[in-house]
Design goal:
With 390 residues, the chain is α+β, with helices and mostly antiparallel strands. It contains 12 helices and 12 strands. Helix 6 runs parallel beside helix 10 (262-294).
């Protein structure tokens, strides 16, 4: 009876629908020749597209989306209905003096399906570098400026977007409010690194970046000028291990020809702070990339298929790929008669990888024709299938 119950439970479990992410989005379309019906249909399509885009953006960073935009557009955005479980129209009406039609919807996006498709396309894989990064401002130095300081707030505004442009997945405004609310409730003392890392893990972050800023008070240079400075301190951690990746300290100064009053000081401090934060992000990005390269986690992952080759040729191909230093984490996904599928990681772009493998095989007197599929997938075909070399 117990085993029957377990069996029924498993059936019910696997029959349950996958979780979907709810989003509220808008879509609009121009009304041509008074045809409001057609405009409303197009506005709805645009709203559904925006919902699916939100799903993709929650999985991939801006840089990866930009690099793979054509593939994502053709393989996912064009089939947007596949990734929408259901939706309801919240509001629809003509806008802009009746020239456009706008629809607002609440949609449930099949995020898991999007992830599965991105993995098939080899755009998303477990070892890719676009890590989820949690960035927090937290004072460990009593001289550091408070987070609600105007200069700090202005400097923090572009941080999430800038890290996303550098290839990291960041957190939205609502999540960050929860993060800072947790920090305030915890009343962390000093550095409290363990608590900060625990917070990062709680939000499934891969990388934790902790920032604080110290104001450098005005001082007179050897000449007649006055300097106002900002010292920005970043500490970078790998969340899962708690290991410190790096630490950066950047000082930027602004100059005044006379001793600045409070207003002028705030303006100069704000400018110095913005410059220091941008430089800190640049340095941090380099440190994080280098860290994951050293742990062999960087690069692009590809699925490569070889069709029509003899068993002996397949062995030669595998041995060559495994012994080529430019290819990392080479593994056989499938190896049957006339069909070989390899997964590998490399820093090469797709076109470079295709040319490299083609030339390497020709050097070994293995004839090859190529076929490129969408995403990070390549197919190499034997023009003379099943012909053993002498």
């Amino acid at each position: 009876m117990k085993s029957l119950f377990s069996f029924v439970f498993l059936i019910l479990f696997f029959c349950l629908p996958l979780p979907a992410e709810e989003v509220i989005v808008k879509g609009s379309a121009k009304i041509y020749n008074g045809d409001q019906t057609h405009a409303s249909e197009q506005a709805l399509k645009n709203a559904l597209l925006e919902a699916v885009k939100r799903g993709v953006e929650s999985i991939l960073d801006d840089k990866t989306i930009s690099l793979n935009y054509e593939v994502i557009k053709n393989q996912i955005y064009r089939d947007r209905q596949k990734y929408i479980r259901n939706y309801e129209i919240i509001r629809e009406e003509p806008v802009l003096n009746g020239t456009n039609y706008e629809i607002q919807i609440r949609a449930k996006v099949e995020k898991v399906k999007i992830e599965q498709k991105l993995k098939v396309l080899r755009i998303l894989h477990d070892r890719m570098l676009n890590k989820r990064l949690l960035f927090v401002y937290h004072r460990s130095n009593p001289e550091a400026v408070l987070r609600d300081n105007t200069a700090v707030e202005n400097a923090l505004t572009p941080v999430q977007k800038t890290f996303a442009e550098h290839g990291f997945r960041t957190f939205g405004e609502q999540t960050m409010k929860q993060v800072y609310s947790s920090l305030e409730q915890e009343t962390l003392v000093g550095s409290s690194v363990d608590s900060l890392i625990a917070l990062a893990l709680n939000h499934n972050a891969d990388v934790l970046v902790v920032m604080e800023m110290i104001a450098v008070k005005p001082y007179k240079t050897s000449g007649t000028l006055f300097k106002v400075g900002s010292k920005v301190h970043f500490r970078l951690y790998e969340a899962v291990t708690g290991k410190q990746i790096a630490e950066t300290i950047v000082v930027q100064n602004e100059v005044s020809i006379k001793k600045p009053d409070d207003h002028k000081w705030n303006v100069l401090f704000g400018k110095a702070a913005n410059q220091a934060v941008m430089e800190s992000i640049r340095q941090s990005t380099e440190h994080i990339i280098r860290f994951y390269q050293n742990t062999n986690l960087a690069g692009q992952e590809y699925s490569i298929v070889f069709k029509g080759y003899s068993p002996r040729s397949q062995i030669m191909i595998v041995e060559h790929l495994e012994n080529t230093t430019a290819f990392r984490k080479v593994s056989e996904l499938k190896n049957t008669f006339g069909f070989l599928e390899i997964e590998l990681n490399t820093l090469m772009h797709k076109s470079t990888l295709r040319r490299r493998i083609t030339s390497d095989l020709l050097v070994q007197e293995i004839e090859v024709a190529t076929k490129s599929l969408a995403g990070n997938q390549l197919v190499f075909i034997n023009p003379k299938p099943m012909e053993e070399e002498d």
